[in-house]
User: Which sequence fits this backbone?
């Protein structure tokens, strides 16, 4: 398994995001045990300390909880937390960049909204 | 992970066995030199002829002195060789410290000297066989050696080889101390050979101390004692030496 | 627990200080990347840690003892570099057998499997191996020795890209199965950094930085924009690198603190992350300019 090599995000953030996506895709259900730091290290050829950092990040955000000696498990509210986080941070960040670029290119609001609508229609058409 | 514990004794044993394999090449040159010496004795090392009336008698002496001489030269250079970088670093690819490396080298030198001494002594039988095949008659039967004489003669040969080997090993180790010594030591030694008056009482008594000793026991003690002292000096010399440069 | 401790460790070679009052501590069971320019003192440090060379001044402890001439250190520290000339009297398979006799924790199975995987000929001599093959063989030797501390000095010299990948994976898998302390010096940080826990950057014989890898990945950011704007933004900040790109545009790498990224973006500057390997390059450069300064 490979991490995105072109991204310069810290590896532990990439690991955390990978687990989040697995939770969103339903590969890890509520109260399921997620991979240990050693398993993650082995899957991605990364240092186990780095993998542990990714897991800790998710624990701190309430997406995972620990059972002493057993490992880390998915919390019931994990899905919602991840969706909120992605909406408020990732999506909002992308929109900020879009707004900035639009301003640079002198694209007005109306035109931008039309472009967004086109994109949404394209995705719906493919679905 | 558990720490790897290695006693000095076991380590030296392993290193010694390793050296038999790693240094095996030195015996090729030994065999070559000893055979060369045997070829030199082909026509005899001394000759004596008399004639009485119509009978003339030619006597040739054959001796293993040449073989032993070249064996001493061999052991001298071999023991310098094993102190050189590439040989010494072999130990440091595996587990070692300077003491164990020296101990294993000395054990190897002792064995190599024994092998070289024995083959040198046995070369006389080869020489005899060659002369026999050439149709010459032996007179050695006239002077048979007792077992005791033969043993002490053989042991003395081995001790000589060991003695020269240890000197070579020591010189080699000293030379490794500093790059400059690679020039200084050989030039110094050669210069000494040219300039020094070997009839000086100091040298004569030194020579007599080691090489004119007639009692085998005393001779053995002198040689072994000197070898031991040189060995201690080796440890002192190499103990602070940096390796794998 | 610290496996390695150096306190004002200094090594003078001729008139040059290869190590100059170096202070470091290496924790047990970590993989540390030792990064520095040629001549920064990487090899000198590793050889002192292996007990091969002795310090000029200062204090060094490996496994709680002074490493120089120590049997404990020799038996438990493997030092692997590209200058290992194994005796020509031994074939490759005999070298591995000899390793087994010396190292108590030697893993014959691992050695044999890696030996087969990289398709070595058991009867070949070490001197006849190509540079990359020799490095691969030395790596097998270093991993199979399974020493408490393993020091790899430029282990991937001459290896091709796919072997370097395999090396990383073999090293990591064996480390996961048998955690131990490793220090790896390398020029290829970008390929190695995933398996590292910490990075130790040395420059002119001193430790410049010793941090977890992710700290280095976040250490600096790059700003690209109009030259006067960028210049104004980076004044009084720690600038690692500057470069003129195009007519009136400038790229600057600054330490990632007290920089308002959002505001920078709004002002029209491009904000980019700087890879750990670039951070190390900039940190170890002698000047904040690059090679281009030479041609000015």
Assistant:
């Amino acid at each position: 398994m490979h991490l995105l090599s072109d991204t310069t995000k810290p590896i532990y953030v990439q690991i955390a995001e990978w687990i989040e996506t697995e939770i969103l895709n339903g590969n890890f259900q509520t109260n399921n045990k997620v991979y240990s730091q050693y398993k993650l290290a082995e899957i991605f050829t990364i240092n186990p300390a780095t993998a542990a950092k990714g897991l800790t990040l998710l624990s701190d955000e309430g997406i995972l909880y620990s059972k002493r000696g057993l490992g880390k498990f998915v919390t019931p509210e994990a899905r919602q937390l991840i969706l909120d986080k992605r909406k408020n941070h990732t999506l909002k960040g992308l929109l900020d960049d879009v707004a900035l670029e639009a301003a640079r290119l002198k694209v007005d609001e109306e035109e931008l909204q039309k472009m967004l609508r086109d994109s949404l229609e394209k995705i719906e058409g493919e679905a | 992970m558990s720490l790897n514990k290695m006693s000095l004794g076991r380590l030296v044993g392993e290193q010694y066995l390793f050296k038999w394999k790693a240094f095996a090449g030195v015996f090729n040159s030994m065999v070559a030199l000893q055979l060369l010496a045997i070829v030199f004795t082909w026509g005899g090392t001394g000759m004596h002829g008399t004639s009485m009336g119509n009978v003339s008698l030619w006597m040739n002496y054959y001796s293993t002195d040449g073989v032993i001489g070249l064996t001493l030269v061999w052991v001298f250079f071999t023991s310098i060789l094993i102190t050189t970088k590439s040989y010494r670093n072999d130990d440091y690819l595996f587990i070692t410290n300077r003491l164990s490396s020296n101990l294993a080298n000395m054990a190897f030198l002792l064995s190599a000297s024994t092998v070289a001494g024995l083959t040198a002594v046995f070369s006389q039988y080869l020489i005899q066989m060659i002369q026999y095949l050439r149709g010459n008659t032996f007179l050695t039967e006239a002077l048979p050696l007792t077992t005791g004489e033969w043993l002490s003669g053989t042991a003395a040969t081995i001790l000589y080889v060991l003695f020269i080997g240890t000197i070579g090993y020591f010189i080699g180790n000293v030379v490794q101390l500093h790059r400059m010594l690679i020039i200084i030591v050989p030039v110094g030694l050669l210069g000494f050979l040219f300039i020094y008056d070997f009839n000086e009482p100091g040298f004569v008594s030194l020579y007599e101390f080691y090489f004119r000793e007639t009692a085998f026991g005393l001779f053995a003690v002198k040689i072994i004692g000197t070898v031991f002292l040189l060995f201690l000096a080796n440890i002192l010399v190499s103990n602070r030496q940096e390796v794998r440069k | 627990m610290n496996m390695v401790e150096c306190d004002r460790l200094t090594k003078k070679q001729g008139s040059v200080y290869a190590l100059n009052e170096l202070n470091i501590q290496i924790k047990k069971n970590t993989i540390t990347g030792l990064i520095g320019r040629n001549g920064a003192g990487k090899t000198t440090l590793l050889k002192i840690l292996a007990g091969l060379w002795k310090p000029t001044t200062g204090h060094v402890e490996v496994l709680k003892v002074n490493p120089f001439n120590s049997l404990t250190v020799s038996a438990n520290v493997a030092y692997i570099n590209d200058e290992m000339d194994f005796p020509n009297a031994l074939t490759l398979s005999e070298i591995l057998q000899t390793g087994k006799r010396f190292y108590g924790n030697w893993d014959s199975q691992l050695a044999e499997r890696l030996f087969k995987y990289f398709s070595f000929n058991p009867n070949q001599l070490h001197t006849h191996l190509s540079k990359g093959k020799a490095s691969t063989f030395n790596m097998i030797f270093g991993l199979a020795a399974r020493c408490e501390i393993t020091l790899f000095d430029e282990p991937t010299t001459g290896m091709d890209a796919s072997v370097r990948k395999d090396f990383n994976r073999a090293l990591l898998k064996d480390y996961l199965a048998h955690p131990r302390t490793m220090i790896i010096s390398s020029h290829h940080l970008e390929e190695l950094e995933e398996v590292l826990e910490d990075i130790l950057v040395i420059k002119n014989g001193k430790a410049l930085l010793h941090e977890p890898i992710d700290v280095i990945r976040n250490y600096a950011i790059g700003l690209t924009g109009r030259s006067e704007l960028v210049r104004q933004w980076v004044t009084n900040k720690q600038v690692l690198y500057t470069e003129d790109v195009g007519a009136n545009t400038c790229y600057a790498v600054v330490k990632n603190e007290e920089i308002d990224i959002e505001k920078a973006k709004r002002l029209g500057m491009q904000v980019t992350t700087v890879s750990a390997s670039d951070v190390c390059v900039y940190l170890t450069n002698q000047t904040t300019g690059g090679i281009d300064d030479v041609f000015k």
User: Anything to note?
Assistant: The two ends of chain C are 50 Å apart (CA to CA). The interface with chain B takes residues 47, 51-54, 63, 69-72, 74-76, 79, 81, 83-90, 94, 98-99, 101-105, 146-148, 178-180 of chain C (CB under 8 Å). The CA atoms of residues 49 and 67 of chain C lie 6 Å apart. The first helix of chain C runs from residue 42 to 49.
